[in-house]
């Protein structure tokens, strides 16, 4: 018996909650930079472009990949942290560290954070809702 095991479909719900929380936090981090921007129209256009790139080209593919991996688990109950694989945890650690370092050492200008963070955060949050939708579909199968 695995300690902290959950039914595998709950991994989709956990992943969705984690992605939505992460997306919210990234948007929250970028909001003050967005708020003080003098070129709001351009910043929002940039955020929309970042959203589309990350949502369509990266995160949507990851949702599908992780959903397939979770559905393919042979066990009905698995450890709750297996909603991601090792590679994904490493990528998350690198992205978080990179974001913190960029802001702490002012590697990128404020206008970059003003459009990049809201776009990235909304893409993360949106894909989190896709995980939750997959969980609901899984429950109804």
From TrEMBL:
Q: Where are the transmembrane segments?
A: 12-34, 40-59, 89-105, 111-133
Source organism superkingdom: Bacteria
Keywords attached to this entry: Membrane, Transmembrane, Transmembrane helix
Protein name listed in UniProt: DUF2178 domain-containing protein
- Taxonomic source organism: Desulfosporosinus orientis (strain ATCC 19365 / DSM 765 / NCIMB 8382 / VKM B-1628 / Singapore I) (Desulfotomaculum orientis)
